[in-house]
Amino acid sequence: MSGAMERAKQWARRIKRDVVALWIAARDPRTPLAAKIVAAMVAAYALSPVDLIPDFIPVLGYLDDVILVPLGILLAVRLIPAPLMQEYRAAAAARAGRPRSRTGLAVIILIWLALAAGLAVWLWQASWLWQVI
């Protein structure tokens, strides 16, 4: 059991390092444009202090952390040339702290506000609801 736990911890450390490496890659002019866009999106989301799907929602809350972020990292890493990715990983490992993404936070808040506004409009226009109330 402890072997599996140790592998999970190492995997989590690699994910955290790669997120920071992608944050660095998104700011480097040597990164190809497609890789830069994917890296910026993945890093902004992963470093945002707020999740698109809150963790308290059963199953779905952890789906983004366990599946979407690693798949995004995998795609971005494949788009970045291997020597550059090695350099970004080394720079990420040397960093003392983890950056925060205010952009990711702002985008997620805007998505939640748009969903809330859409729900409010739908409820306002739902004639069947007014008949029930």
UniProtKB/TrEMBL annotation:
InterPro entries listed in its UniProt record: DUF1232
Protein name per its UniProtKB record: Membrane protein
Transmembrane segments: 33-54, 66-84, 105-124
Record's bilayer topology term: Multi-pass membrane protein
DUF1232 domain: residues covered: 35-71
The entry's keywords: Membrane, Transmembrane, Transmembrane helix
GO cellular component entries: endomembrane system
Pfam families assigned: DUF1232
Chief place where the protein resides: membrane
